[in-house]
Amino acid sequence: LRKRKARRVTRRNKNKKNPDEGISKKDDVPFNGKFFQSIISVLRFNSSTTPKPFLILTPLEESHVQTAVICSRNHGIQMKVRSGGHDFEGLSYVSDVPFIIVDLFNLHEINLDLENKLAWVQSGATTGELYYKIAEKSNILGFPASVCTTVGVGGLISGGGYGAMFRKYGTSGDNVIDARIVDVHGRILNRKSMGEGLFWAIRGGGGGSYGIVLSWKIILVTVPPTVTVFRVDRTLAEGATSLVRKWQDIAHRLPQELAIFVSIGVANATPKDEKTVRATFTSLFLGDAKKLKIVMKETFPELGLKNSDFIEMRWIQSVLFLDNLPTNSSIDILRGRSTVKSYFKGKSDYVRQPISHTGLELMWERLLNDELTGMNLTPYGGKMSEIAESETPFPHRSGILFKILYFAAWNEKQDASSEEYISRLRKMYEFMTPYVSQSPREAYVNYRDLDLGQTSKNGTASYSQAKIWGTKYFKGNFDRLVYVKTKVDPDNFFRNEQSIPSVAF
Ligand code: FDA
Asked: Which of 104, 282, 287, 403 makes an SS bond possible with 378, Cβ 3.0 to 4.6 Å?
C-alpha cells in the first residue's frame, strides 16, 4: 500500500511540475527555491531577503511527521507546519530563525462514513476537496467550513473556521469530535489519549502551538437538496448606506438557515470618472427560493430583490457560487489546490453595536480616499450565539453582530510601496476604534495580524506579552490555553510569532 501511495504521489508531483520538492539547503549547496516560492501565497514575503528553510519535508505518511518532530527537536531547529498555506502573515513558511517546513499537502485523504454522518479528513486536504468528496457521494450532506475553497483544513479548524453555514451549525471546530495529533514527543494521540484539555485547545486555539494535527473526525451536517443564493450590488446612489445600516440590525437575527454577507469596496460610478462605494450583498439560504422570498420580503424589503435574483441550486454549486467560481463548471474544480497569490495584508474586528449612518458615511469617505482597501462583513447570531464562549477557544459568540475583515491588496505595478498600503490599512483600523468591540478589541485568530504583537525572535513571549494578543483572539480562554500549552509542551517546541506561551505557574 505504502509503495502504491508513494508511486501515486510521485506521479501527481510530476504532473504538478514541482521538481524541487523536499530540497534541502546547506550553506555549500545553492538553494533551488522554486518549490519554496511556489508555496508563498502572500507575495510580500516572496523577496530575495525572505529567509529560506533548510528543508521542506512533504510527508507521505503519518510516521514521517513523527520523525520530523523528533529530529527537529533533537537538533533544536524551529519547525513550521503548513497545510493549505493561507496564513495571512505567512506563519507556515516564514521565519527569522533557521527553520524547516513540514508541508502536509500529501496527507489529504478523506474517508466518509455516510451512514453515521461522520468523516475523517487529513489536515493537508483543502476545504474544496472535502466539499467535493462529500458531494460526490451525497446530495444532502455538507460541512460548515470556509467560503474560500483552497483553505487548508489543518489551519482552518485550528483557528475555529467559519463559512456560509456557520449561523446554522457553528464553526468548523464546533463540528469536530476526534483528532489525531503528533505531540512534542513524536507520539500520535487521539482524543482519548490526548485528553480533553488538549482536544479543547486544538479546536480554535490557533495553529502551530500544540503539535501537528494529522487528521480530524468531523460531523457531516444536513443540507437540503435545493438551496438558494443571491448576489446584488448597491452603490451609494442606490442607497448602499441605508442598506448597510439596516443590514446591521437584521442580519444577526435572521433565521439560522440564512447568511447574508456584505463586501464593501470602491467602484466606478456613473459618470465613469467618479468613484463610489459599492456594497455587494451575497447570500446562502438553506431552503428553496419560495421560502427565501418570504423571509426577504418580511425582513429586508429595502434591498429590492427581483425574482430573477433568487437562484436555486444544489448545495455544492452554492460552494462554487460563494467562492466566485462558475456555478456551471464541473465540481472537479474544487480539487485544484492553486491558490491566488497576491500582495496582501488583512486585519479583523468584531462589532457589538450597530454603526450609525454618519459613522458609515465617514467610513466610506476613508475608503474612497484609498481604493485598494476593502471590507467584508460577516453576520453572526444564530447557532453562534447559542454556544458558550468557553466551549472551544473561539470566543466570539453571543452579542456579536458581525465581524469585519479589512484588507489591502495590491500588485507590483501600483505606484506606492507595500509599506504605504499596509500603513493605509492600519490607519483604517485606527479610525474604526470607536465603532468596534472594546476591552478587549476582539480579533479572529485565523486572520493573523502581527500588528497585535508578537513573540521575540526565538519564539518566546512572557505571559503578559502574549496576553496582549491572546485576549483579543481568545478573550477569557487565553489562560486555559496557556495552562494546556504549559502542560503538553513545557519547553515551547511548537511555536511561531504569535503562539501560545508555556509559562511556569
Ligand atoms: P497554513 O498552512 O498557512 O496554516 C495556518 C497556521 O496553522 C500556521 O500557523 C500553521 O503553522 C498552522 N497549521 C497548519 N496546519 C497545521 C496542522 N496540521 N497542525 C497544527 N498547526 C497547523 N477563514 C475562515 O474561517 N473562513 C474563510 O472563508 C476564509 N477564507 C480565506 C480566504 C483566503 C484567500 C485566505 C488567505 C484566508 C481565508 N481564511 C478563512 C483564513 C484561514 O482560515 C486561515 O488563514 C487558516 O489558518 C488557513 O489554514 P491553512 O491550512 O490554509 O494555512
From this structure: 403
Concatenate the DSSP letters of all residues of 226-251 into one string.
Answer: -EEEEEEEEEGGGTHHHHHHHHHHHG
ipTM score of the complex?
Answer: 0.99
How many angstroms separate the first and last alpha carbons of the chain? Answer: 47
Residue-wise DSSP of 250-283: HGGGS-TTEEEEEEEEEEE-SSTTSEEEEEEEEE
Residue in 44, 72, 87, 338 to alter for ligand 1 test, most ligand atoms within 8 A of Cβ? 87
SS3 letters for 68-102? HHHHHHHHCCEEEEECCCCCCCCCCCCCCCCEEEE
Determine the angle formed by the axes of helices 357-369 and 418-431, rounding to 10 degrees.
170
Ligand 1 pocket by Cβ (under 6 Å): 80-88, 91-92, 104, 123, 146-148, 151-152, 154-156, 158-159, 161-163, 207-208, 212-213, 446, 496
Q: Give dist(CA 338, CA 497) in Å, integer.
A: 26
pLDDT beyond 80 at 20: no
Report d(CA 155, CA 316) in Å as an integer.
22
Active site residue 447: yes
pLDDT of residue 31: 54
Amino acid letter for position 343: Y
pLDDT tens profile 106-133: 999 999 999 999 999 999 999 999 999 9
Joined together, the cell numbers standing for residue 25 give 539547503
pLDDT at position 27 over 80: no
- Band of residue 28 on the pLDDT scale cut at 50, 70, 90: very low
Distance between Cα 270 and ligand 1 center (Å): 39
What's the grid cell of residue 466?
502574549
